[in-house]
Amino acid sequence: MTIRIATIDDVRRAEPVIREHVSPAPLVRSYALERELGLSASQHVWLKDYGWTPVGSFKLLGALNWMANHLDLIGDKPVAAHSSGNFASGLSFAGSRFDKRVIIVMPESAAQIKFDLTRSFGAQIRTYDIATDHETGIRDKLTREIAEQEQAVEASPYDDADVIAGNGVGGLEIVDALKQQQRHVSQFVCQVSGGGLMAGHALALADGFPQADIVGVEPEGADDFFRSLAAGQRVRLEHPTSICDGLLSYDVGEHNWPILKQHVAQSVVVPDLETRQAMKWLYDHHGLRTEPSGAIATAAVLSGRLTPAGEGDLVLVISGRNIDEPRFREWISDV
To answer: Which of 136, 262, 278, 309: CA 20 to 30 A from 209?
Structure first.
């Protein structure tokens, strides 16, 4: 595989592609979190809420940019990808915008809302058992089979320069919005799994606010980036586990690692219980029904595992809100 490392120029080139199809996701000030954290009056906390997008997560940004940059290669062929659900709906949305057929491999245990969203934009879905995938590798095998049998073009949900650049447009949105208000960012806190979300945002935040600390957050049972930082090289987990189904990649992508290594010096590891508590807090204080992966960055600061530092603002990413109501109620009860 040829490694092309995304740059801030790639992110800027992606912006008009994204703007043609979707408006910026809201950047909302959290007065409640400012009080909860005891911040000074001069510091603000901002929530970048990708749950607002047409697919309920940030994933359509990278999917749109990937599709736009592969139209000649795709031609009349279908596009194939694996996803826990959010890239599935993002790629399906992109397929509907560019009139391309999309086939997605998803865990049979994925949230129903993720199945429904993906199908609503026209994609076909094939399922696999995620519980045994670490032993069988069936997810990747099934995706390769589809590519071979259907002559499909494969799209990576995170390990691709065009996906990273598209996701980074969200980071440009943050930078532009805060600079317009003459704000300064001290800390940017974002989920890390395969690294597509964080790599894109890190490029934008490092360019716009070079003094800001860029901090990753991972589930306790899926902390491959934390381990990679400690080892100075990519570390693979054989069986990542967490309620954060969107953060269960086995390792950080090859295209993502050089960017993360350069711009992200710290990763915070959060137990699932504290993520559930953050889900409840966001619901009680902001009326946001977030999926676990979406709430984990907020959990890092609410739990005290990450202490706000510096005199500037704190930005937290809410990466998605796609969760079934019964499961949401179950996870926010008794916490």
So the answer is: 278
- Residues 94-107 have a mean pLDDT of 97
| Residue 102: burial class (beta carbons within 10 Å; 0-12, 13-18, 19+) | buried
Do 65 and 188 fall into the same domain?
Answer: no
Looking at the structure, do residues 20 and 150 belong to the same domain, yes or no? no
Burial of 45: CB neighbours in 10 Å, binned 0-12, 13-18, 19+: buried
Task: Write down the pLDDT at residue 121.
Answer: 97
Is residue 260 within 8 Å of residue 203, measured between CB atoms?
A: no
Identify the band that residue 308 occupies on the pLDDT scale cut at 50, 70 and 90: very high
List of long-range contacts for 250-253, beta carbons under 8 Å, 24+ apart: 250/134, 250/224, 251/194, 251/224, 252/192, 252/194, 252/195, 252/224, 252/225, 252/228, 253/156, 253/158, 253/159, 253/160, 253/194, 253/195, 253/196, 253/199
Q: Are residues 47 and 133 in the same domain?
A: no
What is the residue range of 143's domain? 59-154
Numbers of helices and strands, H then E, in the chain: 15, 10
Q: What is the C-alpha end-to-end distance of the chain, expressed in Å?
A: 45
Instruction: Output the pTM of the full model.
Output: 0.96
| Count of domains for the chain | 2
pLDDT (0 to 100) of residue 1: 60
The torsion angles phi and psi of 42, rounded to 5 degrees, stand at: -85, -10
Type of residue at 241: T
CB atoms within 10 A of CB 8: 18
pLDDT at 134 over 90: no
Cα dihedral 55, 58, 59, 65 in deg (nearest 10):
110
> Averaged over 250-255, what is the pLDDT?
96
Residue 2 has pLDDT above 80, yes or no: no
Average pLDDT of span 173-200 = 98
Annotate 49-74 with b (16+ C-beta within 10 A) or e (fewer): bbbbbbbbbbbbbbbbbbbbbbeeeb
